[in-house]
Structures are given as structure tokens and as C-alpha cells.
Amino acid sequence: MDDISRARLSDALRRTAQRDPRAFRLVYKMTASKLFGICLRICGERKAAEDVLQDVYLTVWTRADGFDAARGSAIAWLATIARNRSIDWRRANARPTAPTETLEAVADPAPLTSDALLLDERERLLHFCLGTLEPNQSHVIRTAFFEGLTYAELAARVAVPLGTMKSWVRRGLIKLRDCLDAADA
């Protein structure tokens, strides 16, 4: 997403907060395929992803006033809502996620949401800090975030005890926070 598109999306979200249906349609048109990709990756089922995406846009319509451009990009805010709603669905339905290799491709020539998020300076810093972690910590933190896996699912995937997985994630998140805090200072 280029700078003009980002500005256009931010403006559309601000107008959505004022209950402008045209602005809301624009938000949907600009983001639906990316957010659907997030929902599908985490839910693992097309129908569930469609239902979750509908819930995401209902949340956007009712809570668009919660978007603050000073705190982050519009696409990051929307992606976070999609990710959280998808994880909530997975937890409520207790179904395992299919590996990303087995999911059908989403027809969208645009970069993945994770790639689009990397363009923002804050996201670049986050990825720099992730790179300073031990490889096992970085891998499990990225997998947990982008695929929405639980500690137990992560432990099973890399064949380590649950306690070890929790330690890796906890120590990694502490180091990550310290790195990000140091950059903000």
C-alpha cells in the first residue's frame, strides 16, 4: 500500500467514524481481500473466514472512532481487528488450523498484509528487533502472531514441551519489548 493509498484509507476511516456509508464502502473495497486473507489463514475455513470478516467490518463500522492515525497505520489497525476476531473464532470453535500450504490461494495480486505492514517504519523496527532474538524465539513469536497459534499448538508444531514453549515466548517478548523501548527512548 503506497503513501497515497494509506492516506486515503485513513481519511475513509475518519469519515466512517462519522457514519459516512460511502467512506465505509471505500474502506471495504480497499481492504477486504487483505483482511479476508488474514481471517482465512487463521480460521482455516472459507465459510468461517467470511463470517469473521463480516464481524470485522461490523466492528469497524461501530468503532471507527477508535482509530488514531498517530498510533499506527489504518491497515495495521484493521489487520489487528481481523486477527483478533479470527483468533476468537478459533478459540470458540476449537478447531486446528490447516498448514498455510494447504489453504487455497486468495486471488489478490497485492502484497500480503504482513508485507504491507512491513512498509511502515514502526513495523520495520519491530522486524529489526525480532531479528535480534534467538532464532527459536523469533520463529515462534512470528508464527503465533501471523498464524494465531496457541502455546500448545506451537509446542506441538516444533516438538518441544509446553513449558519450554512458554519460556521461549516469554523471554522473546521481554527482549522484544526492551528493543522497542530502547528505540523509542
Automatic annotation (TrEMBL):
InterPro entries: RNA_pol_sigma-70-like (IPR039425), RNA_pol_sigma-70_dom (IPR014284), RNA_pol_sigma70_ECF_CS (IPR000838), RNA_pol_sigma70_r2 (IPR007627), RNA_pol_sigma70_r4 (IPR007630), RNA_pol_sigma_r2 (IPR013325), RNA_pol_sigma_r3/r4-like (IPR013324), WH-like_DNA-bd_sf (IPR036388). Keywords: DNA-binding, Sigma factor, Transcription, Transcription regulation. The keyword Transmembrane does not apply. GO terms for biological process: DNA-templated transcription initiation. GO terms for molecular function: DNA binding; sigma factor activity. The keyword Protein biosynthesis does not apply. Residues 28-95, 129-177 form the RNA polymerase sigma-70 region domain. NCBIfam families: sigma70-ECF (TIGR02937). Belongs to the sigma-70 factor family. ECF subfamily. This is RNA polymerase sigma factor. The lineage of its organism: Bacteria, Pseudomonadati, Pseudomonadota, Alphaproteobacteria, Sphingomonadales. The gene is sigK.
